[in-house]
Amino acid sequence: MDPLQEYLLSINRRQMLRGAAAGGLAFLGSTALQQILMADETRTQGSEQSHSQNRHGLPHFAPKAKRVIYLYQEGGPSQVDTWDHKPNLSDWFDKDLPETVRGTQRLTGMTSGQSRLPVAPSMFPFRRFENNEDGLWVNEQLARTAEHAKQLCVIHSMKTEQINHGPGITFMQTGHPLPGRPSMGAWLSYGLGTENKDLPSFVVMISQGRGQMQALFSHLWGTGFLPGENQGVQFRASRDPVLYLNNPKGMAREDRRRTLDLISKMNQQQAEQLGDSEIQARISQYEMAYRMQTSVPALTDFSGETAATLELYGPDVHKPGTYAYNCLMARRMAERGVRFIQLYHRGWDHHGSVPKDLPMQCQDVDQAQAGLLKDLQQRGLLEDTLVLWGGEFGRTVYCQGPLEREKYGRDHHPRCFSVWLAGGGIRGGIRYGRTDEFAYNIAENPVSVHDLHATILHCLGIDHERFTFKSQGLDFRLSGVEPSRVVREILA
Amino acid sequence: MKNLIYAFVLTCCLLLCGQLTAQDSNGKKYSYNRDIRPVLADKCFACHGFDAKQRQANLRLDLADGAYGLADSGQRAIVPGNLAQSQLWLRIQSTDADSVMPPQASHKSLTDGEKEILMQWIEQGAEYQGHWAFEPIVAPTFKEDSEANKQSTKLSIDDWIEKPLKELGFSLSQEADHPTLLRRLSLDLTGLPPTPDEIDAFVKDDSVGAWEKQVERLLQSPGYGEKMAMTWLDMARYGDTNGYLHDILRTGWPWRDWVIQAFQNDKPFNQFVVEQIAGDLIENATPEQVLATAFCRNHLITSEGGTLAAEFLNEYAADRVQTFGTAFLGLSLNCCRCHDHKFDPLTQGDFYSLQAYFNSITEKHSENNTAVAYEPFIEIASPLAPDGEKAKVMIMREAPEATKTFVLTRGQYDLPDANRPVSRTIPAIFRSNDQEFPATRLGLAQWLTSNDNPLLARVTVNRIWQKFFARGLVQTVDDFGAQGDYPSHPELLDQLAYQLQHSDQFGASHAWSVKFIVRQIVTSNAYRQSARVHAELMSKDPDNRLLGYFPRQRLTGEELRDQAMFVSGVLSPKLGGPPVFPYQPEGLWEERANEGSNTKVYKRSEPNGLYRRSLYTFWKRTCPPPLMTLFDAPDRTYCTVKRSTTNTPLQALALMNEEQFLECAKLLAIRALGEQSDDTRRMQTMMKRLTGRELRADELEWTRALLQQSRERFAQTPEDATEILKQGVSGVPADYPAPELAAWMVLANALLNLDEVLVKN
Questions:
Q1: How close A439 gets to chain B, by Cα (Å)?
Q2: pTM of the model
Q3: Which of A166, A272, B222, B661 falls between 20 and 30 A from A439, CA-CA?
């Protein structure tokens, strides 16, 4: 447009504005104006697209998934022994990994002192499972999960920048290796809110594995600079799945009701005297606490589940604190609209003996997660639930420690690892990305941690570049500052 | 239609804001710092600011020269007083997708209100100012009628708070009632509520200076040092474990006690800071001065196998710089690890020049090592108990040679840029020609605490203000940079900052007296006003930034727990010493800990450790005490200067059902039964301990009803009564039947959950 014309146009509007007293705009930031404008904006965008938006203007577009179940495998499962089949490696047994393959990859202090880096082929038999392409080869230890190959999208070309557990897990969960940023669950809880007013929107459940276990920090489900109520709530394997949920022994539900009635009446009076809306908020939070005292036990009460359903998850489903138990809990939470369901299964850090430890881990998870997929599918929940499986990095194809055909350990490996996704928004039955013949370097289609985050957000109807939060003067986002992309090739 | 709504809303708001600052609409003069910079910083500086790498079109809008000068386009962004020739105005008004600013790809846009003030400002001459926080502190102005008698004039906080209120036609709210006031003051100065006797004494005392007497009593009480230390521990990221994978035990608690003592004795704040940064370098440093430097080593430390020294030693030094920046300068330096700051005049070189002060100590990387302290450390007892048990505390000690330091490309420890070696220097924007400081940590600390540096005093008084009024005068307590908030009362901020630096000139026994500032605040009328929300004022000042009434604040987790123990009579008065392990649900540590950790198993303290103040609770970083984190305590992995205040159902559950709170309900009941002989008086004593006031007639009725119903119900099922009284390790006196005591316990449990008890009114 011609600048002059533009200027003239602007003057008209300016005169209109001049009618108003133009003062003190420094205070404008927090007035009702923002809310009104935001609501206005929301309505406008809403009418352009076929979905409704909340106060953050989210979702940006129609979501394919409404919730996430993240089956986190803590410790770094070996890609070579699970999802990334390398049949030709057996010829390389005990031969040194070629320098050209290793390149400049940094080693951890645990193998940097080794005189040799001999290749350790996987000792496990692999089997081919029908998917929607040329099939998926998977370690038989994970056969039940692999039966779902038509639903799974296996990414072989994940990469991370972190080589140690602490920063590695933190990076996967928060998009930053150092503690202090909001976790993915907190971002989604903040952005999308809850669908069930009687349960938290972000729940964490931990199960113990059999191998070496790393610490899990509360910052992994922390809320960082986001408002505190978005913090993940850890459900525990105990009488109190939520801390302090139960009234003390000897106090009946009616006793609690009576105390709440007194609290509520007195708080109401206080609210009227002081005019502070926060008191009203407290009254409703106490009421929600009271409802949680029944909604949470209802959640953990499996008596309504049929024998057939329980069987899907395997015998451990009856033991609180197992992966199987948590998988069934995950389905029950998905049903009830919990937004982000985070499982941690510990024990995949197989430095010492993959052949000994890996089968035990697989035994823990295989039937349970296969059962979860099936259960979700049967109930039509898989359509709008995004399921994600994976750890913080992969493991080296070369051996850590002494090498035998059936005894080898593997060190941390950030250059490539495998994860899989299924459900809402994901194109099932495919493999994405490829590693070289040693499962050491990515050969095509690398996916960064931030790409994965961007893709997950996309499935939930969120543009990762526009989903930001201002803290210390900076606009933060889950997918970080470096460019990242939605991996559209794996979208349904 | 949409535009009409905009215009209407905008008009209303402009009218409203106009009233708020009481500016004549024609005479409003826009200030670059107050009105313009926040807009430009948010919307423009990312591409047209300080960061040369990101700069587009060779145009910077953060400096007058840049904005007025010729850009690459051959045009000028701003021609003062001439809108038609100011490209900035034309571009932000443009409807052409290719030329509009900010560009669509930035996902930023200017509101009509923002465009309007930019327009006005350009028309008014587009006058630039230096960033307010970096400008010298303006010495206080004195009341005109007391010019002759400056030294004795009491400079009034209230003058500054009342000014904008009066301009809006309001004034401060009336004074709160005496019990409320004393509870507020006691909680603020000691973290504990007053006793009924203290309240009675204060209510009866109608002498002049009765309030000041209370202030002095509380400032001298040991609780003051403990209370002040609590926020310092968040800032100093203090913990009793190393964090990271193994989360190994550490014994830094003598440093924590040093902090308590320093606040208690009102150690001049400049010394307090110097000793924590560089106490080891002070000539003939005392062991306590060396101990103070533990501040610099409170960061996380890893001992994960396979981690590399180069990476983590760099990480620790960077954490020291980051903490230094946030804690003392109110600036987030972390951005500069990877690139020049996008909004503030700080470069990546500045970051590594600062890091060079902090990266040359005799520390070593410790793989798979479970020692409680890593080199350098000292063995020392708590300053609060010099003859007590000694502990190893990690401190700072310079290595014989300074570590060679380079700018790290993209902040990567393994990518030092050989062409960019750096040496210890203060960031350019802070350097002055007047004074040279030695290139040591001590020199850095001396610069920091010199009166040349306006940030330390401003940042510090702002944080002190936040303790009392929930929010700082600058709301972004952690960001005094260009993206930060402009002060609600800039003159007051400077006055307090000046008074901190020169408190000796205003009647304190020394300069940099924190107690002096605290006294100024709590003796003001602004502090003593009622917390009743002023509805009419609220409609004009929804966030109560003008402080026309006192802002109610929920107590912290520490305060809630300490209060419950205090009112029920079990709180231990013991000061300092090793951390303790109060009640905690079973298995919390075990289910998350690493096998190699020596803090894997939680072993509850003996009874004498169950009732200590909460700042002595063992702080395991990977699993901090749940009662604290549920109430928004940070996990202390990094420097935090503000806790959020949430209101969640999980908090309600904790307050209703956590063992310590339940035991306190039991003990409070036992106490009331023992102290008084009839129901009414027992209920009133309980209420007074908890809130400072007595129950009103209707409340008494409700309370009595709960008591009666509970009595009947427990009389029918006495086994429930016996069961509920088992909370905590403390026994039950045989003097009362279990159903009676249980009924009182249930009542106490309810009262302990009143909003009035959880909040500072």
A1: 22
A2: 0.82
A3: A166
